[in-house]
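Module 6 notes. Inverse folding takes a fixed backbone as the condition and produces residue identities as the prediction. Think of it as a translation problem where the source language is geometry and the target language is the twenty amino acids. Below is one complete input and output pair. Work through it position by position during the lab.
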């Protein structure tokens, strides 16, 4: 089931702030402070000294300022989570979940591509406030966090503000890996790549989509003329400055035939990239709008997928298959499959109950019910 990370879920219980604010969930009285938000379940008391109060149980007689009844759809919130509260809308946004291994920070909704299968269609409006919020939120996150993703929109459109954000991550969470999803075009001129490299972040990776070995086809998929050239120049600049790069190829009806040629192109020309991810389609956003044109059963591109994996693997590139359940892959491809779907949108189907591969299998996007592969079947061993 899809976890609700954002939306209306608060009911004010008295006087509230006039502006949105950010804080960290706590159930420990000793944690009280100006950035801490007390979470009370059941009949727990309401201590003073917190920024706000989320009450999942009975309402106190005299609730302190910024007390809210918390809706059941946000009952997953727990200690250490960082949230944004919008008092006027009664809305809450879970920016960071302490117990999740897949925290992603959306840094802008603007983008200079317009990909035919974009799961997060871009919006052209000033959303620079998002970075201000994140710069407040990051110091509240646990230094034990394994990885933080940065997504958009296109993060490189933020220019120096992206550098500011990555610097903040490196300073506040020095042991946390940072993975930035970018179309790479913003690094084509070299200045931004150099500034990113000069941060000397200890564990930074750029995930950059490349959808073909020829410019026309890539530019068609991302709906932007000249994008292929800029993306390739961006990749070269990042690697020149020592920033790690992962290539991402989303497999659908418009791309799968070019998969073997793409793999040969990478093996010949981009052998220095650090990882290649071949990814199943997420049926969200424009992928839903263009569903009839984009959908292909993964069973029907197994030959192209195997050829691409063999080419990349033979070239000693690290290659992974993302977003694809094991039962639709031939067994020789299983070692390359990764459980890659974020926990808040990960789902399994009835067939998965009792399946021998369930613990290794990454399952489905919750959105996958729109179309399903004819290869989905419980696997029994022996
Ligand atoms: S039946 Fe479910 S758990 Fe088993 S391989 Fe298929 S998707 Fe994975």
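Target side of the pair, the amino acids:
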């Amino acid at each position: 089931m899809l976890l609700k990370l954002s939306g209306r879920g608060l009911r004010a219980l008295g006087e509230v702030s006039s502006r949105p604010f950010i804080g960290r969930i706590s159930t420990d009285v000793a944690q009280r402070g100006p950035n801490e938000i007390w979470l009370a379940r059941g009949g727990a008391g309401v201590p003073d000294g917190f920024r706000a109060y989320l009450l999942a149980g009975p309402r106190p007689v005299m609730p302190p300022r910024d007390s809210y009844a918390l809706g059941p759809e946000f009952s997953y919130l727990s200690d250490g989570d960082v949230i944004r509260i919008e008092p006027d809308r009664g809305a809450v946004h879970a920016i960071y979940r302490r117990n999740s291994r897949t925290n992603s920070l959306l840094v802008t909704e603007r983008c200079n591509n317009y990909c035919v299968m974009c799961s997060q269609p871009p919006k052209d409006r000033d959303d620079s406030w998002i970075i201000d919020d994140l710069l407040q939120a990051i110091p509240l996150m646990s230094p034990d966090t394994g990885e933080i993703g940065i997504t958009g929109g296109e993060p490189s459109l933020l220019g120096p503000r992206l550098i500011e954000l990555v610097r903040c991550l490196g300073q506040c969470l020095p042991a946390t890996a940072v993975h930035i999803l970018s179309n790479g075009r913003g690094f084509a001129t070299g200045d931004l790549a150099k500034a990113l490299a000069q941060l000397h972040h200890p564990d930074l990776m750029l995930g950059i989509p490349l959808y073909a070995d020829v410019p026309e086809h890539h530019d068609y998929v991302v709906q932007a003329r000249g994008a292929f050239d800029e993306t390739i120049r961006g990749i070269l600049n990042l690697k020149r400055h020592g920033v790690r790069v992962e290539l991402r190829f989303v497999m659908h009806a418009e791309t799968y035939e070019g998969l073997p040629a793409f793999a040969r192109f990478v093996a010949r020309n981009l052998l220095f990239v650090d990882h290649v991810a071949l990814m199943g389609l997420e049926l969200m956003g424009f992928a839903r709008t263009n569903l009839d044109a984009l959908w292909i059963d993964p069973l029907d591109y197994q030959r192209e997928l195997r050829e691409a994996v063999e080419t990349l693997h033979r070239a000693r590139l690290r290659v992974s298959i993302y977003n694809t359940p094991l039962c639709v892959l031939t067994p020789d491809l299983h070692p390359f499959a990764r459980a890659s779907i974020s926990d808040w949108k990960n789902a399994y189907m009835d067939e998965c109950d009792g399946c021998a591969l369930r613990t290794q299998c990454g399952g489905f996007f919750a959105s996958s019910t729109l179309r399903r592969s004819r290869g989905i079947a419980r696997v029994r061993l022996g």
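Reference fact for the lab report: Residues 325-327, 348, 351-352, 355, 357-358, 361, 363, 376, 378-379 surround iron/sulfur cluster (CB under 6 Å).
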